[in-house]
Amino acid sequence: MTTYKELFGKYVQNVASDPTSTDAEGQIWYNSTSGTFKTALGSYGVWSSGGNLNTARGLRLGGVGTQTASLAYGGSPDNSASTNANESYNGTSWTTIPATLNTSKYWIGSIGTQTAAIAASGYTGTANTNTTESYNGTSWTTVNAVNNARRDSMSFGIQTAGIMAGGNVGAPTFVSALVESWNGTSWTASTALPAVREGGGSAGIQTAGLVFGGTSPNVATSSSLSWNGSAWTSTPSLNTARQYLAGCGTQTAALGFGGGPPFTGATELWNGTSWASSPNSLATARYTLAGSGSQTSALAFGGGNPSPLANTEEWTQSVTVPVAGSWSSGGNLNTSRMYLGAAGIQTAGLGFGGYNNLSSPTTATEKYNGTAWTSVNNMNTARKLLTGCGTQTAALAIGGFLSGDIPSSASESYNGTNWTSTPSLNTARFGSAASGTNTAALVFGGAPGAPVSNQTESWNGTSWTTSPATLNTGRNYLGSANAGTQTATIAFGGQPITAVTESWNGTSWTTVNSLNTQRSGVMGAGIQTAALAFGGSTNATELWNGTSWTSNPTSLATARSLGAGCGTQSLALLAGGDTPGFTAATEEWVGPYSTLNYKTLTTS
Fold this sequence. Notes:
This protein is an all-beta fold. 1% of the residues lie in helices and 40% in strands.
C-alpha cells in the first residue's frame, strides 16, 4: 500500500498548534493538543460585507464584471419605477457614474465587463423594450435592438459575443424559450431552450454557457441546462429550486446565489458535473439581485427582500476563510456610568468622568489592563459628556458638562499618575469629539448650548487655538477616529442624528462617504484610514477603510451610546455608556481576520 510519505514526500507532523501558512493546504498533521488529525482545505467559500450601492435597487438590475471591478446599471429603486443609474465598484466602494443608460429599465439582460458591457432589452416600468445599449467605460451608446423584446432573460458572454435566453415577452405568450445570439453588431435567432423559462441564473461565454433555476412557468425550478454554442443539454439540477437568483462563473465552475420567493441566501457551486450546496449563505436573503465575478471571487449586489437593497456582499473561496469582527465581554468598570471620556488602547485603556445619577458628574478615573479595571487618581474637575484622547499614561480630558449642566471649557492632562489642569478651551462645550495626543490634540463639534457647534480647536501642549476651518456639518455627540492625529482624523455621526462623515487633513474638513446607519452618541476608534464606529442610537458596528464604511455582521452585545470607546480598528474597547441608564459593562472588539479552512479528519 502506498504511504502518505511516498505520496507527498513528508511524514505526518506532530504539532501542538495548527499551522497558519497557506502551504498547509492539502497536508495532514497531528495536533497533539486536540488529539486529532487535521488538514487545511479549499473552502466552500464565505460571504462578507462590501460597500453599499449609492442607489438601492432591485428587479434584476444589470450587473457585470469581477469582484474588484464591477458595473451596476438600471434596476428599480422602488419595485415599480425604473432607473438609468450607473455605478462602478473598485473592490471596496461603489461610485456613481455620470454616464447613465439612455433608457431607464429593469429585468435587464446584462453581458460583459466593467468597461465593456451590454444592457439588452428589459422592462421600462410600463412595457418591455427591445433596446440594446453598449458601454465602453465612458458612455452608453444605443446599438441594434433585440429581435424579440423581453424582460428577465438569462444572459451571458462578452460585449462582442453574447447569449440572451428565455425571458418574458409579454402577452399573449409571456414566458418564452426564445434564444438570441449577439455578435457585437446585431442579434440573431439561435436554438431555443428545451422549455420556456425566465428569471434564472446564468454563467459562461457564448459557446460554453449555463442557465439554472428560474420559473418554467410560474413555478420555481431547479433545472440546469448547458449550452455548447449550438445546442442545450440537461445537466444535474440545483439542490434548491428558486427563481430570480443570480449567477456568475463559467460553464464548468459556476456559482448560483439568492433567489426566491421565499427569499433565500442559499449558495451553490457547480463543478461541471453536479451542484453542491455551500454551508454559507448570503447574510441578507434576497431575490432579483445582480451578480458578477467567478466561482472563487464573486459579488452580490442589490435585489429585494422585498424592498430594494443597497447591500453588497463579497464571496471568497480559498484555503483561507475570512472571519468577521466580533465583540466579547471584558471586565466591568468599578463605577457604573455613562457620558464618560476615554483614551488608550484595548489592553491599556483609560476611562474618566461621566455620571451615574441624574445630577452630579464624577471625577472618577479607571485604567484597564486588558482584563480588569482599576481605580486611579481622580480628575480635578468633575464633569460629564466630556471627550478625551491620548494614551493610558498620557491622556487629555476636554470640555464637558459641569454640575448643573453648565458647559465646561476645562482641560486636564494625565501623566499616568495624576491629572493636571491645563489652559482652557476657547469655547466651552459638551458632546464634542477629539483626536491626537496630550501634547498635540484636536477637538471638534459639540455644543456650547444651542445650536450645536461646528468649531475646531487645536492643542499644542501649552494652549488651545481656534481654527478658522469648521466642520461642514455642526453637531454634538459625534464619534471620531480617536487614535488619529491632530492633522489626520475623521468625524462621523452625531446629533442632530446623522450619518455624515468628514475627513480632516490638518487644514480643512471634507465631507466623504457617510455611515450606513445614521446615529447619535456614536463611539469610535482607530485612525483616519482605518476607523471603527460602534453603538450610538444603534448597536451596529461599521468599519472605515479610508474611502467607505462597511457594516459588520456582528453587533454590540449591549446597545448603548456615549460610553468610553478607544483603541484601533482591529482591537478596540468600549466601557460604560447609556443603555438607556448607566452601565459598567465592557466589551472588547477583535477586527476581521483570515484563518485557514481547517478540517478535522475522522474515520467516518
